[in-house]
Structures are given as structure tokens and as C-alpha cells.
């Protein structure tokens, strides 16, 4: 059975997310590379424009996120305010792939520089996120960025609650 590139990326992202649930064995796992596409339209909901896919990633410390320039005109960037203390901010070039190795546990908010106000934002949850998750969730966002983050954090809250009950 052949899969499209998008289906392959989706399955890889889903597998990485499922495999990243913290456990005793997680400390012994090899670091993974997790793909995040930068898209003009959401593959499952064409009404959602300017998106990262997936927009929430659960990862382990040491994993790498590869932001794939699937559609032109996007980048991935963050600021020191949107990442855990001790982590390094990044800013990729427009239209180019960028890889970020996650060496610090916590929550990372990121965005596409030209489409941030259009709501092109995402969230990385790396290991134990208790150091900054609530601060990042409570930060001030504007316009479509605010609406998109409200949805992302609602789904992230469910994900984290499910992890704690397991």
C-alpha cells in the first residue's frame, strides 16, 4: 500500500507523539526526529489557513523537530519569552527547513514570522513541561494567534491530563 508524502508525515508525527508519552523507558530511548509541516492550508480542514501540521508535538529531551517547508513563504521562529529558561530561541529563514534539537524540558511556543497574526503558531511539549507551561498558556496573544492558541492549549491540556491519569 502506497502512502502520499503528507500521509507518511502524518503517520510519523502521530507515531512520534504516541511514543513520546513519558515513561521509565523514555530515558533510554534513542532521540527521534519529528517532522512538522509548514502549510498554507490544513490538510484535513481546508478552511484553516497558515498552519503548522501537527500544531502540537509531544517530544522527549534530545529529540529534534524538523520544520519542513512544504509550502513556500513560511518559517519557524520563537522568542526567549516563549521557551523554557535555559533553552535557545530560533528563527529560520523564510521558505527553508530548519531543525531544532530540544535539550531543555518545558513548553515551547513558536510561530511563522510573516503569518503570526494570521494564527500560524504551534506548541512543543518536551519532557516535564511544569516549569513554564502555565506561564506560556497565560501569556498575552492577539487576534487569530490568540484564537489558535486557545484551541491548541485546550487540546494540550487534554493530552497532559490523559498522560497523568495513565
Descriptive notes:
By secondary structure, the chain is of the alpha/beta class. It has one domain: Immunoglobulin-like (Sandwich). It has helices at 5-19, 133-137, 143-165; strands at residues 33-41, 49-53, 56-59, 64-68, 98-101, 106-111, 121-126. The strands form two sheets. The chain has a four-stranded mixed β-sheet. Strand 1 and strand 2 form a beta hairpin. The longest helix is centred in the last third of the chain and has 23 residues, at 143-165. The radius of gyration is 15 Å and the shape is globular. Residues 8-25 have low confidence and may be disordered.
What share of the residues lie within helices?
25-40%
The largest β sheet comes out as:
4 strands, mixed
Provide the succession of SSEs. Answer: HEEEEEEEHH
Number of strands: 7
The tally of structural domains comes to 1
Number of helices: 3
Poorly predicted ranges (pLDDT <50, ≥5 residues)? 8-25
CATH architecture: Sandwich
The CATH class assignment is: Mainly Beta
Keywords:
166 residues, alpha/beta, Immunoglobulin-like, four-stranded mixed β-sheet, three-stranded mixed β-sheet, 26% helix, globular
In short:
The protein has helices spanning 5-19, 133-137, 143-165, and strands at residues 33-41, 49-53, 56-59, 64-68, 98-101, 106-111, 121-126.
Amino acid at each position: 500500500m502506497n502512502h502520499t508524502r503528507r500521509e507518511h508525515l502524518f503517520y510519523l508525527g502521530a507515531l512520534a507523539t504516541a511514543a513520546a508519552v513519558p515513561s521509565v523507558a523514555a530515558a533510554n530511548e534513542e532521540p527521534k526526529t519529528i517532522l512538522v509541516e509548514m502549510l498554507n492550508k490544513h490538510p484535513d480542514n481546508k478552511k484553516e489557513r497558515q498552519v503548522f501540521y501537527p500544531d502540537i508535538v509531544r517530544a522527549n529531551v534530545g529529540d529534534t523537530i524538523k520544520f519542513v517547508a512544504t509550502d513556500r513563504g513560511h518559517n519557524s521562529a520563537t522568542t526567549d519569552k516563549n521557551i523554557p529558561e535555559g533553552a535557545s530561541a530560533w528563527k529560520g529563514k523564510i521558505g527553508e527547513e530548519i531543525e531544532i534539537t530540544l535539550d531543555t524540558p518545558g513548553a515551547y511556543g513558536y510561530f511563522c514570522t510573516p503569518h503570526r497574526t494570521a494564527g500560524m503558531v504551534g506548541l512543543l511539549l518536551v519532557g516535564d513541561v511544569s516549569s513554564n507551561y502555565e506561564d506560556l498558556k497565560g501569556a498575552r496573544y492577539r487576534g487569530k494567534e490568540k484564537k489558535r492558541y486557545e484551541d491548541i492549549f485546550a487540546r494540550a491540556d487534554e493530552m497532559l491530563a490523559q498522560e497523568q491519569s495513565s
